[in-house]
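Incident log, support desk, overnight shift.

02:14 A customer reports that sequence design results differ from what the structure should imply. Their input is reproduced verbatim below. On-call engineer (initials T.W.) acknowledged and began investigating.
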């Protein structure tokens, strides 16, 4: 089949593409920023379209010539996510009909049959309904908690259980959930491409276990070989308060924690299992909860996490300037530039640069970075705890603590775009070049484009600390390279 995937830079889409390729399908992908896909191992096996699901023309262009379209886009980071997803779904459905696409496939959320749903589940249901009401047949798969290395649901479960040996919990931890392993979700998504013609309906998909969230935490502790967790239910913890706690304790920011927990106030279990009459079980059967957790932990410990919840970028206004804009663009730009010579060869300095962040830290005034990270988390930003996927290598588009890798010229230049809450746009550029004496010229530039008076005031306020933060960073990065064994 000729398949097009919307959302290929996200957690599910990034894993689905190679599965479709391995199944023998021809695959095209759509991304707002194709550069994010430059280093994916499957990049040379797919056709890449630049597009945005809110741009009708780019959606129409991407749809042409395809048999199946996978729609795997959500706007959770936006306050108006329901409006954005509604508009996007209508444009995708219309473009699929105009292009003669044979089937739409959407991964929605498992939900009870009740008129009152959380905003997140209501939006997921609405998107599915829009696709089903269109002129192209749609297969809407509905899943609850997805268990896999790097998924937001799994990271929330993992960090809550590992970091809190004793905890007070809200009443929703006693609601029943039917989790499913990411391996099985991908299996059913691939199978959806070749289901019999004429299907236009939802299918509930879930694993073999129905558990409460409390049971999931306790079973996770057993698999992870942790002591039994002490849990004290407290009825006064609202979903919003619970989400703020998750925001502080786990890497999952409040903008994602709120809709995830809002969904857990419902019991989410499969109401039917009709797909099994059309599709055989995955090889070895659907994974039980313990098997899915064990697999996810193994991949995490072996640094084999191919995609993460943070891979999808936070929303930004395309009209916003970028660090590559020329000086004549007219906006005010503040910079802090540091240059240092290192006796270490360029490749050694580069290893330190590319290994920055995560467990390695930022080579400068750790307390200041920690305080700024906590402040960002409290205000709903990314904070520092997103970490990094690989301890040694970075890839364009991936999250790195509160930054995102905007560009990387391996061995020469790294450009990071800040996703912390600041009144403007911020970048950090680090570059390495050979020196005449066989050492290295290291150059570091912090770039800030302020927004309004608050942006100008912000830069002036933090400027006195630049020598400590940025000067210390440059000195410590070159020093670390020189002392590397």
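02:41 Re-run completed on a clean worker. Output:
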């Amino acid at each position: 089949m000729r398949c097009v995937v919307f959302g290929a830079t996200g957690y599910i889409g990034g894993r689905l593409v190679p599965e479709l390729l391995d199944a023998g399908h021809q695959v095209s992908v759509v991304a707002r920023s194709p550069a994010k896909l430059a280093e994916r191992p499957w990049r040379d096996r797919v056709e890449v379209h630049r597009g945005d699901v809110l741009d009708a023309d780019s959606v129409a262009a991407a749809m042409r010539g395809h048999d199946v379209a996978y729609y795997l886009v959500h706007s959770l980071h936006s306050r108006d996510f329901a409006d954005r997803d509604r508009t996007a779904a209508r444009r995708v459905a219309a473009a699929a009909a105009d292009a003669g696409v044979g089937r739409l496939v959407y991964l929605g959320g498992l939900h009870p049959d009740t008129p009152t749903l959380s905003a997140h589940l209501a939006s997921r249901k609405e998107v599915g309904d829009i696709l089903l009401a269109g002129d192209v047949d749609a297969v809407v798969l509905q899943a609850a908690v997805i268990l896999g290395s790097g998924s937001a649901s799994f990271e929330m479960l993992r960090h809550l259980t590992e970091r809190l040996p004793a905890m007070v919990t809200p009443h929703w931890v006693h609601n029943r959930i039917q989790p499913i392993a990411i391996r099985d979700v991908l299996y059913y998504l691939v199978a959806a491409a070749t289901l019999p013609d004429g299907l236009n309906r939802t299918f509930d998909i879930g694993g073999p276990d129905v558990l409460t969230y409390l049971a999931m935490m306790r079973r996770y502790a057993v698999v992870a070989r942790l002591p039994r967790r002490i849990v004290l239910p407290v009825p006064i913890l609202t979903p919003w308060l619970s989400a703020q706690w998750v925001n502080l304790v786990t890497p999952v920011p409040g903008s994602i924690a709120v809709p995830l927990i809002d969904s857990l106030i419902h019991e989410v279990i499969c109401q039917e299992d009709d797909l099994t009459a059309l599709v055989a079980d995955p090889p070895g059967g659907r994974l039980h909860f313990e098997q899915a957790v064990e697999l996810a932990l193994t991949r995490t410990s072996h640094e084999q996490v191919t995609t993460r919840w943070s891979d999808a970028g936070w929303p930004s206004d395309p009209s916003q300037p970028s660090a590559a804009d020329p000086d004549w663009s007219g906006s005010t730009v503040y910079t802090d530039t540091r240059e240092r010579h290192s006796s270490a060869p360029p490749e050694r300095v580069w290893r330190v640069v590319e290994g920055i962040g995560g467990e390695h830290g930022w080579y400068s005034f750790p307390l200041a970075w920690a305080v700024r990270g906590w402040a960002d988390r409290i205000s709903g930003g990314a904070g520092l705890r997103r970490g990094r996927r690989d301890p040694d290598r970075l890839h364009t588009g991936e999250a790195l603590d509160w930054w995102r890798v905007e560009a990387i010229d391996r061995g020469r230049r790294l450009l990071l775009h800040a996703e912390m809450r600041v009144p403007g746009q911020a970048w950090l550029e680090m570059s390495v070049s050979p020196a005449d004496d066989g050492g290295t010229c290291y150059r570091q530039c912090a770039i800030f484009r302020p927004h309004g008076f608050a942006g100008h005031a912000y830069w002036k306020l933090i400027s006195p600390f630049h020598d400590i933060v940025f000067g210390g960073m440059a000195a410590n990065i070159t020093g670390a390279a020189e002392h590397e064994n």
